[in-house]
């Protein structure tokens, strides 16, 4: 899974705000990492979504649709300030951490555990998806998206959503899309490789920070969508296509 890169400027540096331990009560996720922001794709943050679950079983878990859980965070920093925290799970599996998928906690006490209750939506699709936790000094985290740069700490994990007894799973239509040319300068074409099942679908484009920069409706018989990107800033972009119960995504670079 490829989510937007969240630049983190000083999780283990000057400010020293970092996550010492993260766990979800009653599950196998219980990960302690100390403080070591990892250089990944040109930015610093701890991306544990690539850890082998066999070798690191405490860095992932399975959550049930409709169940309520408690996320426990211990933060440890070199100063005495309290911290704010944002917690995301990509419930709809669209490769975007939406604001509606965020839980915010304020004023975490220095060095002490802090708990957040959250409920997995009963209609969440089953399967693997992303989880992101962001931490910084009190005073401003709620103004950040899941992808904007901040001076603090960001950690990514992969968790699995599982269906509960009595809950009907959402059936996904398999749709493959791609974008070319890639990289693009003035125009990019999105190719849809299967016919859409509903009368219309929504196509959205997001920048690397999760900001929506384009949205348009497309018809059931369209299999190529041309997008004018001449006024887009250079960087990474994500294309999302939603059609009935199907959600899929691809990405491209703008030169």
Q: Could you characterize what this model shows?
A:
With 255 residues, the chain is mainly β. The chain has 2 domains: 18-162, Immunoglobulin-like, CATH 2.60.40.2950; 177-254, Immunoglobulin-like. It is 0% helix and 47% strand. The protein has no helices and 19 strands. It has strands spanning 18-24, 30-32, 39-40, 43-44, 46-47, 62-64, 68-76, 83-89, 102-108, 113-119, 127-137, 152-162, 177-180, 187-192, 200-207, 212-219, 224-228, 235-243, 246-254. The strands form 5 sheets. Strands 5, 6, 8, 9, 11 and 12 form a 6-stranded mixed beta sheet that branches. The protein has a 4-stranded antiparallel beta sheet with strand order 2-1-7-10, with no helix packed on it. A 4-stranded antiparallel beta sheet has the order 16-15-18-19, with no helix packed on it. Strand 18 (235-243) and strand 19 form a beta hairpin. The protein is globular. The two termini are 23 Å apart. 33% of the residues are buried. Mean pLDDT is 77; it is low at 11-15, 36-43 and 165-173.
- Overall, the morphology is globular
Helix content: under 10%
Order of helices and strands: EEEEEEEEEEEEEEEEEEE
Strand proportion: over 45%
Q: How large, in whole angstroms, is the Cα Rg? A: 19 Å
How large is the count of helical segments? 0
CATH architecture descriptor name of the largest domain: Sandwich
Summed up, the domain count is 2
The N- and C-terminal alpha carbons lie at a distance of 23 Å
How many strands in all?
Answer: 19
Low-pLDDT stretches are: 11-15, 36-43, 165-173
Task: Please state the average pLDDT score.
Answer: 77
Q: Which CATH class of the largest domain is shown?
A: Mainly Beta
Structural class: mainly beta
Q: Any idea of the CATH topology of the largest domain? A: Immunoglobulin-like
The largest β sheet comes out as: 6 strands, mixed
